[in-house]
TrEMBL record:
Keywords: Signal. This is TRAP transporter TAXI family solute receptor. Pfam families: NMT1_3. InterPro entries: TRAP_TAXI.
Length: 328
């Protein structure tokens, strides 16, 4: 499986011991690591590249982000060990465990373990204001809708959601930056995003043109919640300059994942760096305001990596049973 390296590896000339993790504690640690993210222009890439560089700097190990197809592919890459870490969403994680990941149908991806909670992914619709589309019901039959990279959370769930709401469309895939350009050029009518907010592509579109960010009606929101593994969510008004009020949406939680065979002390160290200083994470991306220890319980599907489980038990009072810890 091929993916493109984007972030330059942050490296040091030696593995510098930190006060918390002495050289003697590094038995079996990898000399480098990668974090599977998603396409450029999406929140996964910005968030994942940021924490990869943070961990690399703190631990003195080469590390960087990889552009991938998103949550489904990341589950596969981490399961096989092609990537040490990755970002996923709870829906795709559950499907991967059940063996229904379209990348490898029938393969139960049980070697990808939960590491830490990230943030909620809202599902939102963006159009050019010039289209006159202001509600889901305004989307014309046969509209060309971009759903993000094939196999992403958006591509997995948003087409089904819109079908449940009676929308007829032509399905298009691509990276978020590419789809944003197609929307501006009139090659797409709608982009259906599933990404942490603010979405870089939407923020850029706001600067370059007039857009409408379409919210769900209460009835549409209820229909989606009844049929899909999502919860109610309001996109805060301050997220985008286009909004004049919170936008009604639905959302799904995201988690960072680790290959289950990584050393416990290594994953504990990585988790500690991410979870111990939220301000640094928020500086990477504002969606990390939800990257908080108390959200450990948002993992509803995955077995925990032993190193991550130990961190949350020791530092967040998490009640994680042995039956939910890999190898426990």
């Amino acid at each position: 499986m091929t993916f493109t390296r984007i972030a330059a590896l942050a490296a040091t000339t030696a593995l510098t011991a930190t006060a918390a993790f002495a050289q003697d504690d590094r038995a079996g640690w990898p000399s480098s690591f990668t974090v599977g993210t998603a396409s450029q222009g999406g929140t996964f890439f910005v968030y994942g590249a940021g924490w990869a560089n943070l961990v690399a700097d703190e631990l003195g190990i080469s590390g960087g982000a990889e552009v991938t197809g998103g949550p489904m592919q990341n589950m596969s890459l981490v399961h096989t060990g092609e990537a040490q870490f990755g970002l996923t969403t709870m829906g795709p994680a559950a499907e991967s465990l059940a063996g229904t990941n379209p990348i490898a149908p029938g393969l139960q991806m049980t070697n990808a373990c939960a590491m830490f909670p990230m943030y909620q992914t809202p599902f939102s619709v963006t159009v050019l204001s010039s289209t006159g589309i202001e509600d889901i019901a305004d989307i014309p039959a046969g509209a060309r809708i971009g759903f993000g990279p094939a196999g992403s959370s958006s591509d997995t769930y948003f087409p089904l959601m819109l079908e449940a709401l009676g929308v007829e469309f032509e399905r298009r895939n691509g990276g978020w930056d590419d789809l944003g350009g197609q929307l501006q050029d009139g090659l797409l009518d709608v982009i259906a995003f599933a990404a942490g907010v603010p979405i870089p592509t939407v923020s850029q579109l706001e600067v370059q043109t007039d857009v409408n960010i379409i919210e769900f009606t209460e009835e549409e929101q209820a229909t989606i919640i009844a049929q899909f593994p999502v919860a109610a969510f309001d996109i805060p008004v301050e997220t985008y300059s286009t909004l004049t009020a919170p936008a009604r949406s639905v959302a799904m939680w995201n988690f960072a994942i680790a290959n289950c065979d990584l050393p416990e002390s290594f994953v504990y160290a990585v988790t500690d760096i991410i979870m111990s200083d939220n301000a640094r994470m928020v500086n990477i991306h504002s969606s990390a305001s939800e990257t908080l220890p108390e959200h450990w319980d948002k993992n509803t599907s995955l077995m925990w990596h032993p190193g991550a489980a130990r961190w949350f038990i020791e530092n967040a009072g998490a009640e994680i049973g042995a039956d939910m810890i890999h190898g426990g």
